[in-house]
Design goal:
This protein is of the alpha+beta class. It has one domain: Rossmann fold (3-Layer(aba) Sandwich), CATH 3.40.50. A five-stranded antiparallel β-sheet has the order 2-1-3-4-5, covered by helices on one side. Strand 1 and strand 2 form a beta hairpin.
Length: 125
């Protein structure tokens, strides 16, 4: 049985303060100007699908050249540099001790809804 996302909600992820996409089909087209959040929507879907896997977070930060370590090891995201790296996923790049509300990525599909909440140091799926 394949998971189909009918509705997607993204809150406080990168430049997306609050985004709700409803009535999604099998194929969807995302358009917009440069730096409007198109890639952020795709990254949010990837993070949701992986359950906020540290290796996926690392790959996203590395692709955007936001990974500050010189290591190519995904496990490094949980090291000393992690707070600086993870903060770039939040709007305005706040220090982790200033984050008051979590990133929330949620979908409602035909069979099983998914919800992920990320608040700096922990993830709730």
């Amino acid at each position: 049985m394949k998971l189909r996302i009918a509705n997607l909600s993204i809150e406080r992820f990168r430049s997306l303060r609050q985004l709700k996409l409803e009535g999604l089909g099998r194929v969807n087209l995302i358009t917009g100007r440069n730096n409007s959040g198109k890639s952020s929507v795709l990254e949010a879907l990837r993070i949701l699908a992986s359950g906020a896997s540290p290796s996926v977070l690392y790959e996203i930060l590395r692709y955007r050249e936001e990974n500050l370590s010189d290591s190519d090891e995904p496990s490094r995201i949980v090291g000393a540099e992690a707070p600086t790296q993870i903060s770039s996923l939040f709007p305005g790049f706040p220090p982790l001790d200033k984050i008051q509300e979590p990133i929330v990525i949620a979908s409602n599909g035909s069979n099983s809804p998914l919800r992920l909440s990320q608040n700096g140091g922990f993830t709730e799926v």
